[in-house]
């Protein structure tokens, strides 16, 4: 059995964009679920990989992205889920966490065959990442209470697509386990 990796999508955000105010409301609801998943994954020694947009800053690295988010107007949404020293980090430029990133290679090196997706935005980055994980033959779990959306109707449709077309498991964070992470 392969390992399970927790993928935290775009949670290191400055919230200085067009849909920020709508998104912030949903992120506040998702934050406890993200925190619970981070704790559970870290307690099980499961890989935790933050995959984050670089916001068009082509010279940025994970430290700069985190610093920008922590100095932004919504640092209160970033600090509770900030990466620890063991967390891994991948920079992305488009919606999918896999598109032209080394994530697939990294997951292979880690022996991960199952990914738990949390973060933002359900109807965009989470959806496209679930599809790309599925076509790479990874088992996909989406943490229902640890994802944020901009448009609730589109998010609902995206979740149905992930479940139906990508065989994704949709579960609350409290039902997601990482035990297999220890058995490699």
Radius of gyration: 15 Å
What are the segments in which pLDDT stays under 50 over at least 5 consecutive residues?
A: none
Strands side by side in the biggest sheet: 3-2-1-4-5-6
On the 0-100 scale, what is the average pLDDT? Answer: 93
Number of strands: 6
The percent of residues in helical segments reads 40-55%
Provide a concise account of the structure shown.
By secondary structure, the protein is of the alpha/beta class. It is 40% helix and 22% strand.
List the helices and strands and how they pair.
Elements: E1 3-9, H1 20-43, E2 48-53, H2 62-70, H3 75-78, E3 88-92, H4 103-110, E4 112-120, H5 122-135, E5 139-148, H6 152-166, E6 169-171
Parallel strand pairs: 1-2, 1-4, 2-3, 4-5, 5-6
Helix pairs in contact: 5-6
Polypeptide structure, described:
By secondary structure, the protein is α/β, with parallel strands linked by helices. The protein is built from 6 helices and 6 strands, in the order βαβααβαβαβαβ. The chain has helices spanning about 20-45, 60-70, 75-80, 105-110, 120-135, 150-165, and strands at about 5-10, 50-55, 90, 110-120, 140-150, 170. It has a 6-stranded parallel β-sheet. The protein is globular. The termini are close together. About 40% of the residues are buried. The model has no long low-confidence stretch (mean pLDDT about 95).
């Amino acid at each position: 059995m392969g390992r399970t990796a927790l993928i935290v999508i775009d949670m290191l955000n400055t919230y200085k964009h067009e849909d920020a105010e709508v998104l912030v409301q949903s992120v506040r609801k998702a934050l406890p679920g993200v925190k619970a998943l981070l704790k559970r994954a870290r307690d099980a020694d499961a890989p935790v990989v933050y995959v984050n947009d670089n916001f068009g800053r082509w010279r940025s690295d994970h430290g700069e992205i985190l610093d920008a988010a922590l100095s932004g107007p919504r640092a209160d949404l970033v600090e509770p889920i900030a990466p620890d020293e063991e967390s891994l980090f991948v920079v992305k430029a488009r919606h999918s966490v896999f598109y032209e990133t080394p994530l697939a290679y990294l997951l292979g090196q880690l022996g991960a065959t199952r990914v738990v997706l949390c973060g933002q935005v359900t109807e965009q980055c989470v959806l496209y990442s679930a599809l790309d994980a599925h076509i790479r033959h990874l088992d996909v779990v989406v943490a229902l209470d640890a994802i944020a959306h901009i448009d609730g109707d589109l998010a609902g449709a995206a979740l149905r697509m992930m479940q139906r077309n990508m065989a994704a498991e949709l579960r609350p964070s409290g039902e997601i386990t990482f035990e297999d992470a220890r058995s490699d």
